[in-house]
Design goal:
Blueprint: E1 2-14, H1 19-28, E2 32-45, E3 50-54, H2 61-68, E4 76-81, H3 91-94, E5 97-101, H4 113-124, H5 128-142, H6 157-169, E6 175-179, H7 187-204, E7 207-211, H8 215-221, E8 224-229, E9 232-238, H9 239-245, E10 251-257, E11 273-275, E12 281-285, H10 290-300, E13 303-310, H11 313-322
Parallel strand pairs: 3-7, 3-8, 5-6, 6-7
Antiparallel strand pairs: 1-2, 1-4, 8-9, 10-12, 10-13, 11-12
Helix pairs in contact: 5-6
The chain binds adenosine-5'-triphosphate.
Adenosine-5'-triphosphate is lined by residues 11, 13, 35, 37, 55, 57-63.
Amino acid sequence: MIEVRNLTRVFRTYKKRPGFLGGIYGLFKRDFEEIAAAKDVSFDISEGEFVGFLGPNGAGKTTTLKMLSGLIFPTSGTARVAGFDPTRRESAYRRIFALVLGQKNQLWWDLPAIESFQLLRHIYGLPADSFKSTLDELVERLGVGHKLNVMVRELSLGERMKMELIAALLHRPRVLFLDEPTIGLDVVSQKAVRQFLREYNRQHNVTILLTSHYMADIQELCDRVIVIHRGTKIYDGALDRLEAGSGARGKIIKFLPQPGAFPENWTSRHGKAVRDEDGHITLSVPAADIVAVSQEILTAGAVADITIEDVPLEDVIAELFTSR
Ligand SMILES: Nc1ncnc2c1ncn2[C@@H]1O[C@H](COP(=O)(O)OP(=O)(O)OP(=O)(O)O)[C@@H](O)[C@H]1O
């Protein structure tokens, strides 16, 4: 469904010298800086896949999604989405994909969402009956029926994002590019959006490429992730494999000693123990040592509580970036 080959985008930006004199200098001589926001990025995504697109701030994710949407042109390389070349900006292509930018609005602030939806119906030339059935389905799934006639600027962030998703899906796109769709949402709204996306992907076999800085989004929705760093793809594969193959693999053991049971300077034979303000002691240990360390802790002193957790995905990803 999506074929990307050596996609590269170089931005040339003017570097202004500071102050008024710097501005005058710039009238005569301009200093430019070139930034390769995407460098030789290649990947394939099959129909119905739900792929996470990860990378730190400025990695080139939005730039890549904008190239796939035909909003900006690549400097070199090619992309094909459902057989279309996005750079040609054909109307037929616009009907089969949607781009949702969590930090931007496509809905009109001063109109109720339903009026923007009606406008989109006319833009896409959707028949009234299919528009109604799609709208009813989306509104019901997202639970925003009572907010359709409220001005968009008066909606909460979560309600607005749900309306943005409805606007993006009214024409039943086959490919969905989602750039931070849960940014700034509270945990309940994040969960609702995630659940909606998961069900929608399964039910309609829509191909989804999702960027998010919330690892819960990625862990709950994506089996596969593409990781990009400084414009270059550094990982493409199963999320499980990324977690398992990381040097940060292992477990986190956290326990609360009974008062006075462990000396202040207690440490494990298997690794450094860190004590927090509440008295909890935390150890990062290789998965193979988990039983031995647990036994060591339980024989060392009385323990009020103990938990064993996976290393957070955030740490696995951060390690991937710092090792480059
Ligand atoms: N229009 C532009 N002109 C000049 N440079 C740009 C432009 N758009 C993006 N860049 C630069 O390209 C790089 C990649 O930006 P991009 O927005 O694609 O990153 P991102 O991975 O989406 O980051 P974030 O997670 O912060 O959204 C950054 O260094 C950014 O400053």
